[in-house]
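Q: I'm writing up a methods section and want to include an example of the input and output format. Could you take the sequence below and give the corresponding predicted structure tokens, formatted cleanly so I can copy it straight into the document?
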Amino acid sequence: MLKLAGRSVGRGPLLGAAALVLALSAPASAEKIENLVAVFSGLDKITGRIIAFDVYIGETVQFGALQVTPRQCNTRPQTETPQTTAFVEVDEITLENEVRRIFTGWMFAASPGLHAVEHAVYDVWLTDCKQSSTVAPPANYSGPPISEQAAAGEDPLAGTAPQLGPSEVVPRLKPQP
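A: Here is the clean output for your methods example:
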């Protein structure tokens, strides 16, 4: 028996209440979707150009003097809070033609400033993950199996929308003040 506020109380109600508090405070685990393609943006600080590029999981793509290799890219279902993460390795090719690892870790698309690769000349950050790409996989691709290529501008995770013909689209007049 425990004494609580001067009264004797059995352990059953306290243990049950403690279990309920622990169950309610535990984070809900949303299922993750493992994607085949990681989408990055890269900034060339010399020219000021920003380039978006797709990289298959396990593939290495060169952006300037950097080599970017995603090892895993995860998203959540559309019914959950969006969270896009990727485990990435970034190597730099030095002027002596040596490869030096400058980043290994998780990148989060929601906070690119915290987990981006900041180089003297180039910056690289994760923007998205997707199931397919209009870019063909490399000849020696050894990542997860690819089911089919998406047509330009299509994303298989986006769902389907009815196609409207020109006669079904009715323009609306802009309201006048």
